[in-house]
Amino acid sequence: MAQKIKLSTIAESLGLSTATISLALRDSPLVAADTRERIKEQARAMGYIYNRRAASLRTSRSGIIGVVVHDIMNPFYGEILKAIESELDRRSHTFILSNHYDSVEKQRSFIEMLLQLGGDGVIMSPAIGTPIEDVELAENNNMPAILVARQMEGCDLPTFRGDDSYGISLATNHLISLGHRTIAMVGGTDQTSTGRDRYQGYVNALRKAGIEVDPELRLPGPRSMQAGFDAAVDFLSLPQKPTAAVCWNDLVAIGFMNGIARAGLLAGRDISVTGYDDLEEASIATPALTTVWNGQEEVGRLAARALLDKLADSHALDGLHLIKPEMRIRQSTGPVRPRS
Amino acid sequence: MAQKIKLSTIAESLGLSTATISLALRDSPLVAADTRERIKEQARAMGYIYNRRAASLRTSRSGIIGVVVHDIMNPFYGEILKAIESELDRRSHTFILSNHYDSVEKQRSFIEMLLQLGGDGVIMSPAIGTPIEDVELAENNNMPAILVARQMEGCDLPTFRGDDSYGISLATNHLISLGHRTIAMVGGTDQTSTGRDRYQGYVNALRKAGIEVDPELRLPGPRSMQAGFDAAVDFLSLPQKPTAAVCWNDLVAIGFMNGIARAGLLAGRDISVTGYDDLEEASIATPALTTVWNGQEEVGRLAARALLDKLADSHALDGLHLIKPEMRIRQSTGPVRPRS
DNA sequence: TAATTAAATTAAACCGTTTAAACGAAGCAT
DNA sequence: ATGCTTCGTTTAAACGGTTTAATTTAATTA
What 3 state SS string does B272-339 have? Predict the structure, then answer.
């Protein structure tokens, strides 16, 4: 690198002022068409690199969007991220990603970092126990926030997520219609809105079918494949001998199917298993997993769009936006067969 | 937000100069201890937010590290990223993530974006066909690059990856020692250094055992679960009737095992299957997958460390750094059984 | 030809930090 | 007193763009 090329370098080489260069490079109609072309050509030839931080210092727009979720390696969030990415890409924004692993501190330090970098906005799936002040910190400093996948109590920010209660009731009803009466719920926690909603959907579906709800049939736990795998042991030793399991998500369900397979049981024949999310993995699993499509792409796309719209005209789209889940019936569920 | 709090706001409120405030907040010994405390307290009270882009405009250090890989949703990269993240976190750097999906254009526009943002450095797993100029673009603009997982021809940048040739030969030898003689290789491509190395390792192991190499037994393809699933059909219709498959990675292997399961075949009993990477999924799969640990965490950690060291003292650690893979034997491989 | 208007370009202020150099006050030795 | 340090703080000039009012140049009209 001989020397740093900046606006003034180009300006001198062309005998113009930096103002003209700046305007030309941004296609301002203020500068004559041929001058503009000449400038652009020269910029290219000199290998000019636009200095965003200098610009954003003046304009207070950085083109940076922050995204923070529980765990980007979780395919569920992965699919949301992919949708966000492609939407932001099209509108030439950069995004900065982070995991919070449900640590409120990690999440807050991400928000602070983003503020320091001059982030234009943030899309977040709030960590469990996020205090309202943490999102207000963002909003108060002129950095709008959008929530995805999870909701926050007493918070009117634009929120996009699937209708969990409805989605789980779809899965539960499907099992009931196959004749199952003793249905366990595997995985999940009461600490998130999602967790409460899903349990509620399960409870509602059972009640509606006149089935008594047995709290013992709920096996809460983490939302990982490993957790599903481990939960199989507990499930199999339940005295009520459930014939079906509504799993928290596809990862838990796949882990669970593998877990019961170790005991020689086959999902769909011996025990019916449903997942949630309809990840790519679901249709490949053996047996192919019956699950509920949760509209991840939709959530990501709408959230990104909402944020960019808000930045453009600050038309707030506050409040909750629910995406309607859909049933995907495959081979992991089947007619009830009594367990010995 | 009443008004934007900046150094000068604090300075005025305290009857000091911005210089003192700036120095105090960064714990400079130049300012008296009690003044410093007074300043820090006031900054906290006023809700001051450090403006990094203003600072970095002056210092030309942004604290931003870019990371670009093929696909962050791929757990293999996910594990590398996790290691990079935790290393950068400890040294208070922010990282910006991107997928290139093996598009050279997407990768270049990421590098350009990063330069505009004033990124301090970049860690990349180069897209297939990356021209040397693209990494030079970074280096020439004072943004050091580190390569992970993939190598680039004729490029002496610090590169961290597993020893693929050796790793695959471990897997192949394991199968040979179980009596297998007709071993297919499933997935992968010749277009990456990794691809060539792995095929070479497979070929070497076979030759060393006196087994003739049959090019027909190679089934190249994408490196996804779906691809492994699909490859099972081709595998089963090979005239040579292989008894084992060395799969490109764990995802391909898991897909493959599911694929042959659809034909009623069980990995480890009817056909031996090896994976590569030793992802979390591998030990949960049914049957548990025999695979090769590829040191993802190691790669990520070392790469991040190398970059930060380079930034600190620009001691270049150029050249290739190979991590030695290790065998993980589980249930998806077993003694040869002739296929009918 | 002068006056008027439109088009193209520029000067200068500004964004919020950092930092080298300068400064004033106090303490100390001479 | 005088000069010499030391300590704590301030001044002022960057950093590399954007923006608006002002100015120059060119085109049009009377």
Answer: EEECCECCHHHHHCCCCCEEEECCHHHHHHHHHHHHHHHHHHCCCCCCEEEECCEEECCCCCCCCCCC
pLDDT digits (tens, 9 = 90+) for A269-298: 999 999 999 998 899 888 999 999 999 999
**Please, are residues A260 and A250 in contact by the beta-carbon 8 Å criterion?**
no
| Tokens 């190679």 found at | B218
- Give the list of residues 6+ apart from residue B109 with CB closer than 8 angstroms, or none: none
Residue type, B154: G
Backbone angles phi, psi at A30, to 5 degrees: -70, -25
Q: Which residues of A touch B90 (CB under 8 A)?
A: none
Task: Tell me how many degrees the CA angle B93-B98-B104 measures, rounded to the nearest 5.
Answer: 130
Q: Quick one: which of B100, B118, B101 has its CA closest to B109?
A: B100
Report which residue is nearest nucleotide C20 when distances run from CA to C1'. Answer: B19
Among residues 61-100 of chain B, which lie with CB inside 8 Å of chain A?
62, 64, 72-73, 75, 78-79, 81-82, 85, 94-99
**pLDDT band for position B1 (50/70/90)?**
low
d(CA B65, CA B93): 7
- The domain in which residue B111 lies consists of 60-161+297-322
* Partner residues linked to A161 by β-bridges: A322
| Cβ neighbours for B132, distance < 8 A, ≥ 6 positions apart | B152, B154, B155
How far is residue A113's CA from residue A125's CA, in Å, rounded to a whole number? 17
Report if residue B331 sits inside a domain.
no
Whether chain B has a CB inside 8 Å of the CB on A54: the answer is: yes
Q: What CA–CA distances, in Å, run from B326 to A283, B163, B176, B177?
A: 31, 10, 17, 16
CATH classification at residue B11:
1.10.260
What is the pTM assigned to this prediction? 0.90
The single residue listed with the structure tokens 């126990």 is A129
For residue B1, is it within any domain? no
Neighbours of B21 (CB within 10 A): 27
Contacts for B153 with CB less than 8 Å, ≥ 6 apart: B193
Q: Do B258 and A225 touch (CB under 8 A)?
A: no
Is A75 found in the same domain as A35?
A: no
pLDDT in tens, A204-254: 999 999 999 999 999 999 998 999 999 999 999 999 999 999 999 999 999
Q: Please check whether residues A238 and A171 belong to one and the same domain.
A: yes
Size of chain B, expressed as the number of residues it contains = 340
CA-based angle B156:B76:A325, to the nearest 5? 140
Q: Do A1 and B142 touch (CB under 8 A)?
A: yes
Q: Tell whether A170 is covered by a domain.
A: yes
Please tell me whether residues B223 and B309 are part of one structural domain: no
- A11 CA from C9 C1′ (Å): 12
Look at residue B214 and give its three-state secondary structure.
coil
Number of domains chain B is built from: 3
DSSP-based three-state secondary structure for B190: coil
